[in-house]
Amino acid sequence: MNKFFTLRDGYGTVQALLPDNVSQRFSLDGLAFESILRVRGTVQRRPEGQANKAVPTGEIEIHVSELEVLNQAKKRLPINVKDHNRAKENLRLEHRYIDLRNRDLQHNLRLRSQVIMKMRECMINDYGFVEVETPTLFRRTPGGAQEFVVPSRKAGHFYSLVQSPQQFKQMLMVGAIDRYFQIARCYRDESTRPDRQPEFTQLDIEMSFTDREKVIELIEQVLRKSWPYRDNPISGSFPRMTLADAMERFGSDKPDTRFGYELQNLSAAIGTQITVPAGVRQQDFRTYGIVIRAAEARKLPTGLKKTLEEIAKKSNFCKFTQSKITPDWTTGPIARLLGQEAAEALSAQLSLQTDDLLLLGWGKQSYVQNMMGRIRLAAYDALEERELVPKRQSHAHNFLWVVDFPMFSENEETGQIESTHHPFTAPHPDDAAALTGFSSLENIYTIRSQAYDLVWNGVEIGGGSIRIHNSQLQRMVLQDVLRIEHAHLHHLLDALDSGAPPHGGFAIGLDRYVALLCNAASIREVIAFPKSLDGKDPLSKAPVPISEEEKRIYHIQVVE
């Protein structure tokens, strides 16, 4: 009717009204959506009964006096800007410059900027940190994630994009930059892993003359100061849990503590009646259970059984069963599996009642803990979906420090020793003597490190450690324990030989953390120009072939 239109920018929308005397001068007919306009007019209250309280500007409108089309959009854009029924993600990524106009992406990117600004202010103004930019082009570092290789003009010589500024920040400590941070870009070739980006951002921190307590206190304060929701502020210190406790109670090194249904260790009650899976030593054998009480169990979807069995099928060295409790349960089929005596002991320990559902897993300790942790989450998802339990709040303050990680772990595929975090992590003070005098591989896995992870609502949002600052100890870890050829680390080892202060640090994964703050389904929703699931860029179509001339300059020959 050539009367109304809505103007939208990065801050919201407003209704514009063309009065009769103005509508004769301007025609909106044929003007494409998403065109860029400049409007002059007066802000006026909407007529009685026409206010729209669902939008912030719903009580006012602009009475237009002047209207200018600065740039007309083409008639049919490849995607529409709307909150619901949006285009498929790949199409939105291809035309991200239009997709960015969506309200949720505007909110996410602006909130991200606000959080990072407050983190910077806290680090610099409150704690005297120095922001230092470290190189992106570095040398190959064996071990860890797959790195991106960058060719140089020298035949057969390559840079690598840094996985993290780890070595640089340790050398900054040697160089007396005693409080360092940066908003660091990191690169890992992990395109096959879900919800990962080949390039990502972290708040990277390192301090000299520090210990675990000081690092933890700093990180808690940075999160408190940068928390964007003033009506729901973070208060108090975050609780702590050892890794052993987290695995024993929740079956995860990043436990979601917003709900119960904790694992129950049933090894003593069951004894040795149950068959130990092949390849599991008796001393590593454990049994865990989770009970869903009758009131909820009766209403569970029938498909849950298959879901849990699928999880169990993917778990090595362990077995799983689910059993509904009946009046004669201790003499029924479960007795053939456990023996009647063990079934009765189990029933007594768990106070089982008719129609309760028992989820039971047994096998190699770490494997069965992991399996039962995944089963716990899947079972709660099903309960939550049916509204049988309280819904988990996305901004609940369930922050948790997980501490006392083992310094070394066994690679599940190769059986080789590897660092649980990275080779520069210092041993726990109580276990330092055991490391320097280790005599067998059995002992090596009991040595704890000074590593610590921060978990929020079941998601790891950061990790750090106190570092090894003694070059002899660092060489011994690399050479004698991990058996890593370390010529490529000569610069770091030389630095540690040059008078390195005790130091430690932390890194917060900003993409993941901001995605949680925004309640976003994926980290791609908080990154302006993300890559797709396969690591490609739908916008520019990168990676792309290069010319023969460029191949010649960089000594590249393509082999199919």
From TrEMBL:
Iron-sulfur among keywords: no
Keyword Ribonucleoprotein listed: no
Record-linked InterPro entries: Aa-tRNA-synt_II, aa-tRNA-synth_II, aa-tRNA-synth_II/BPL/LPL, Asp-tRNA-ligase_1, Asp-tRNA-ligase_1_N, Asp/Asn-tRNA-synth_IIb, GAD-like_sf, NA-bd_OB-fold
Family note: Belongs to the class-II aminoacyl-tRNA synthetase family. Type 1 subfamily.
GO molecular function: aspartate-tRNA ligase activity; ATP binding; nucleic acid binding
GO cellular component term of the entry, any: mitochondrion
Domain Aminoacyl-transfer RNA synthetases class-II family profile: 109-530
Alphabetized Pfam families for the sequence: tRNA-synt_2 (PF00152), tRNA_anti-codon (PF01336)
Protein name, as recorded: Aminoacyl-transfer RNA synthetases class-II family profile domain-containing protein
Keyword vocabulary terms for this entry: Aminoacyl-tRNA synthetase, ATP-binding, Ligase, Nucleotide-binding, Protein biosynthesis
GO biological process, one term: aspartyl-tRNA aminoacylation
